[in-house]
Amino acid sequence: xxxxxxxxxxDADEAVRLVADxxxxxxxxxxxxxxxxxxxxxxxxxxxxxxxxxxxxxxxDLPDGGPRxxxxxxxxxxxxxxxxxxxxxxxxxxxxxxxxxxxRNMATIGGNPLQRTRCVYFQDVTTxxxxxxxxxxxxxxxxYTRYHAILGASEHCIATHPSDLAVALAAVDAxxxxxxxxxxxxxxxxxxxxxxxxxxxxxxxxxxxxLITAIxxxxxxMARRSLYRKVRDRASYAFALVxxxxxxxxxxxxxxxxxxxxxxxxxxxxxxHRAEAVxxxxxxxxxxxxxxxxxxxxxxxxxxxxxxxxxxxxxLAARTIVAALRDLxxxxxx
Amino acid sequence: MDAxxxxxxxxxxxxxxxxxxxxxxxxxxxxxxxxxxKKGCDHGQCGACTVLLDGRRVLACLVLAATVGGAEVTTASxxxxxxxxxxVQRAFLDHDAFQCGYCTPGQVCSAVGMLxxxxxxxxxxxxxxxxxxxxxSQAEISERMAGNLCRCAAYVxxxxxxxxxxxxxx
Lengths: 334, 170
Fold this sequence. Notes:
The structure holds 2 protein chains of 2 kinds.
Chain A: E1 5-7, H1 12-20, E2 25-28, H2 34-40, E3 47-50, E4 59-61, E5 67-70, H3 75-80, H4 82-87, H5 89-96, H6 101-106, H7 120-123, H8 165-171, E6 175-180, E7 183-188, E8 211-216, E9 226-231, E10 242-251, E11 254-263, E12 270-271, H9 273-279, H10 286-296, H11 312-329
Parallel strand pairs in A: 1-3, 2-3
Antiparallel strand pairs in A: 4-5, 5-8, 6-7, 6-8, 9-10, 10-11, 11-12
Chain B: E1 2-9, E2 12-19, H1 24-31, E3 50-53, E4 56-59, E5 72-74, H2 87-94, H3 104-119, H4 138-144, H5 155-169
Parallel strand pairs in B: 1-5
Antiparallel strand pairs in B: 1-2, 3-4, 3-5
Pfam families (chain A): CO_deh_flav_C, FAD_binding_5
Enzyme class (chain A): oxidoreductase
Protein name (chain A): Xanthine dehydrogenase YagS FAD-binding subunit
């Protein structure tokens, strides 16, 4: 492992300055992904800045009625929060569906969306990877593609984003509070992550030295009727093949509002705007759910692979969307 | 690059200087001679290195020692009260909840931390009603212990052991 300095500031401005002034520096949160990358040689920073004391570990109430979740809140503490459990089942379920109890006690709400792809070619420094080593090529194309993208991929990168939490935050239109050397700004959560295009080395729209200080959740009363459904190769402690975060609001026999985001299918949490458009104002019928899912996946481009490829994901994603909507409207359909 | 830290491990205070690259697991095993937490995968996938850090179960292989100065660490070897094993340790013995034993210190620490989480009302992926107090079914135990792998597959005995311990710890 390459030697690095370690700073543990108690102030966010200082943490930002330490990283912004040093191109070789990186923020360290819970460390569940980055420390592993230090061992694997995937990440080789010369300086680490621990931000777990520099950002808030509290959940506070915003004037509009939504909570502000400090970046240093541990995933486990978030799932224990009674208000979050009552008001945002899809978010709490997304966190509970990820990793293990030990990892959730370490990982932070601010760091979780910034974890990097689990593409095995990205994590194996002996194979080419445009995300790890821009211009080196993509080892995943034509390789094992079971966990890779069916939406929004490019010739340069077919990796998927591994976070469950990020899928739920995309569905509810959370807001990311970011501190940089020039001050604070906010980013709609759906604009935090990017598609790979020709720059897959950039997972997000954050600049070097920009620090997530908190995630703001909108009041969004409809989130009480929501869920996170994750399909994986084993019952627990595995990344998603496909996941769906969904919330729905019914008015009489019509869907008045709906939020859907998909995980495991793209380089970013995939907000299903097309499916939502089909569903808004419609009756909650099984065939409408199927039409909505088909609309969202119309542009899906499954990959070939030595493992048989990932063509199954298009069907799986459609069925998971339908199943999630069915669960959410149980009793409301006749 | 070195960092000077203090740690309390199983009730004993230590001051040590570590390379910033040193994990808590390596500090415990190689510097302090506490070989109770095991190095299984060293990548956060197996749970053999599980310890209690300020009372919470964590993976010592993914914690940089220099980031937890001042912390209180409990390993499986620090759980007993004198010659009396911790109820979770006793239950593992009663139920033969291991074969080779390599994963056991991690399993035991994880179970102790997990039972505290249940007592505090934390839900899990297996919890149907997120707003209700969780009840520790076998499905709940399996889910909550999913981060501890046992290559001997002693799970069928680990789950009842934890059920027994849960009754005693409560």
